[in-house]
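Annotated sample (chain length 263).
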Amino acid sequence: AMLGRVGYGLIDNAGEVMALVSFFGEFMVKVLRLFKEPSRFRLTSTVHHMEQIGLDAVPLVALLSFMVGAVIAFLGAMVLKDFGATIFVVELVSAAFLREFGVLLTAILLAGRTASAFTAQIGMMVNNEEVDAIRVLGLDPVDLLVIPRVLALLAMLPLLTFIAMIAGLLGGMAVGAFNLDIPAPAYMARMSEMMQFRHFIVGMVKAPIFALVIGLIGCLEGLQTQGTAQSLGERTTSSVVQTISMVIVIDAFAALWFMQMDY
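Output written by the structure step:
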């Protein structure tokens, strides 16, 4: 029975991967079609989702990033003080947030906050047969429901990542100033001296990839809702689990790749 469940699970996961790849292809085709038929682009809907995804999430992203930056500084100081190297907390916090934690924290927060919202919104439209009505009217649900949400994510997640990086660095600086006897001017001077611009590039390059994954999975799970409340709950849960898992897996592979490239 256990082997049977494992087999069915593998088949279901393979089907989800194939559906996601197919949905990505359909999304790209219809985005490219916008250049030929720009009237299909829904500017008002895109701006509305940019506000919901980005502006409304700024306080949460900034607060959590600040606190995580402070925690990393505390942990680094606890280990490094035995070697008399507390000053290296500056490099630890800066490299961690510029390369990894800024984009990863933002993506995980949006995976839980935004992907679930996309799935619930589109899933309710499927349950209420609104998506069928859109098709009957001769309109494309991908143009109306998917493209504005994904484009809004692609625009806002890099900006939120930048805010998370700044907040995390400020959290480390606050700990350095109040607990580690590293004044803010000295902290900033060492950070600007030791940190390289490539660390910032590594973090920002991953943001659009994470945005694409979060948006596509959230919308796809909503469109796959079966028309019942139970199905909507299962799909919402599935979208959060899938997006967080994919974000962490992609980040791990990216970290390995950049390490092998010595970048």
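Annotation: Residues 45-260 form one domain.
Annotation: The radius of gyration is 21 Å.
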